[in-house]
Amino acid sequence: MSAALALATSLLWGLADFGGGLLTRRIPAATVVVVSQALAMAVLGAIVIATGGWSEWGPQLWFAVAAGVVGPIAMFSFYRALAQGPMGVVSPLASLAVLVPVGAGLALGERPGWLQAAGLVVALSGVVMAGGPELRGAPVQRQTVLLTLVAAFGFGAVLALIEHASATMTALFLALFVQRVCNVAVGGAALLAQTRRGVPALPGGGRPMVFAALPALAFVGLADVAANGTYMVATQTGPVTVAAVLASLYPLVTALAARGVLREQLRTVQATGAVLALAGTVLLATG
Fold it and tell me: Which residues form the EamA domain (predicted)?
């Protein structure tokens, strides 16, 4: 049961990443973040009301507020990176979010085992190689790699914060709802600021294009929420290590979708770097 839920988590996260990256190639990233998170917020609000989640209100929700502030920055950076560079490189690099809880553990006095130490070396080697340092051809833009690493740090911080914001499934729904409210508020402010600077919030097709994309936007937002839920249940019904390893395979879903739908072709060094980044993530999660 736990393994199946963890695999479902990787599938949902992987497809949400692919869908978000694909949408960002037609719609501004800030618009994708705000609309998808607003749709997810509406659904989560209904779930909180139906389950009586308001009873879980307490000071621990400040962690959810913090996650809601960090989240839009991470998503905006991630979608921009997916729109600019090969998804087969960007998504595995974003899985380095696991470095955040590892770093927090080190700061608190924990010492990594040999698997984690090996994972750190392998993952960082993958970061360098995924940038495409070849003697011929154009490498992945440095800005794309930087955006991806910013997103990875943000995603790791969000997972850690949400973990502290909830202890039960009902509390998790409330925490995710509060996080999405803050996501929409922060993302909406960024979108407004862009508009005032003359950057259009809607593409050339305007509102009709956004309305046509609403089903896809809803899928991106709800798949992300569902993945959070399946992962939490997976860690509660089975070994956390197994759930973490299986859930960390989501970049493979994104890469396979990009190859199947977009026919992305990666150079050898980029593909090797992406695989190493993913392998390092699995080792870190296992350790």
Answer: 3-129, 145-285
Question: Running DSSP on this structure, what letter comes out for residue 274?
Answer: H
Total-model pTM? 0.73
C-alpha to C-alpha distances, 102 to 22, 105, 137, nearest whole angstrom:
31, 5, 35
How many angstroms separate the CA atoms of 39 and 180, rounded? 9
Separation between Cα atoms, residue 79 and residue 187, nearest integer Å: 13
Dist. CA 176–CA 184, nearest whole Å: 12
The pair of structure tokens assigned to 264 is: 């992305």
Which residues have a Cβ under 8 Å from the Cβ of 15 and sit 6 or more positions away? 219, 223, 253, 254, 257
CA distance 156 to 148: 12
Tracing tokens 């955040």 back to the chain, one arrives at 100
Angle ∠(256,244,119) on CA atoms, nearest 5: 80
Tens place of pLDDT for every residue, the chain, 287 residues? Answer: 777 887 888 899 889 888 888 888 788 777 888 888 899 999 999 999 998 888 888 888 999 999 999 988 888 888 788 777 777 677 777 777 767 766 766 676 666 677 767 777 777 677 667 655 544 445 557 788 888 889 888 888 887 787 777 777 888 889 889 999 998 998 888 878 777 776 555 555 555 666 777 888 899 989 988 888 888 787 777 766 567 666 777 777 877 787 778 777 766 776 787 788 778 777 766 66
Query: Distance of CA 144 to CAs 117, 147, 150, 231, 266, Å?
Result: 26, 5, 10, 28, 15
Largest Cα separation within the chain, whole Å, is: 60
Rg from Cα positions in the chain: 18
Helix (H, G, I), strand (E, B) or coil at 174: helix
